[in-house]
Amino acid sequence: MWRFFVSRLGSALLVLLVLTVVVFTLTRIIPSDPAVVYAGPKAPPEELERIRERLGFDRPLPVQYLSYLGGLLTGDWGDSLSTRRPVLTEFAVRLPATLELLAAAMSLALLLGVVLGVIAARRPGGVTDGVIRFLAIGGISMPAFWLGLLLQVVFVGWLGLLPATGQFSKELAYISPVTPVTGFALFDALITGNVVAFSDGMAHLLLPAITLAAYPAGLIARMTRASMLEVQSQDYIFTAQAYGLRQRLIRWRLALRNALPPTLTVTGLSAAYALTGTFFVEVVFNWPGIGQFAVNAMLSVDYPSILAITMLGAVGYLLANLLVDLAQARIDPRIRISASRPRRTRVRTPEGSQTR
Q1: What is the pTM for the complete model shown?
Q2: pLDDT digits over 86-115, tens only?
Q3: Where do runs of H (alpha helix) occur along the chain?
């Protein structure tokens, strides 16, 4: 298992290194002057030249890249050109809200996707299967910003059941403020026993979580259904049925366990996609996460912030895939055995060709 983990981790770090080269080069060839973004368009040329020298933009591109790579390893991701604050400080303020939204959305997507996929595979081609497939395709094809606006119209405008935007109600700061402990506001409200703030935060979280969960839930449901149909045709399933085991036990224990590896792969890819999809959802629901910061950084061509946001998405994507690979290896021992098995090579000797 350790050899499997080291192999996957090494591949992820290599991909991350190549990505830093590509993204750094692309941000530097954009026709924009970072000194103007930092000081403003009315700054005198002498001031702009001093800023370029102080920020290191006057140095050769390879030197800038090595300096940037060293900053990544030491925790210095640069300063935002628009806010003039360290990028990691901006992340520390905004990232917990994004992670709470992402965790809620992926938990909802995994639960709904697996359950609906298993139910759809019970009677393929039936009415229930058709309805679930229609909902899955709708969740995959529907744009997140459009679904968010639609949910706001229905549940806020027509029914008046849920709040439209924000993470908490404004009056909550005076009635029952959240005591910061970990930086995750909803979790802090839960562990400090602030029931009023927790229920208010859950009400604000529901609509953006459903919006963000629609796409991964559709993918997970379709993959679970396809995997279950394939597993249910295996001989050991028919053997279990012949022994008289209950259908519920066969379906939810035997079949689902062997159908999970492809579903976990799709879940990891969906989680990485949802991390970038939070930007659109946060803009629609005015969620105080990293999405607003990302949009402002792109509009103002804020190089350090764009690089940091891209690296954050890449690290999230690679981490999700690494966790999925480890989960698959835990569920199916054949995966880690095949990954750690030494390759056979053919060696030519005087006695003839031998395989090692």
Answers
A1: 0.81
A2: 888 888 889 999 999 999 999 999 999 999
A3: 2-28, 34-39, 45-55, 61-74, 87-122, 127-141, 144-151, 172-175, 185-191, 195-231, 235-242, 247-249, 256-285, 290-299, 303-331, 333-340
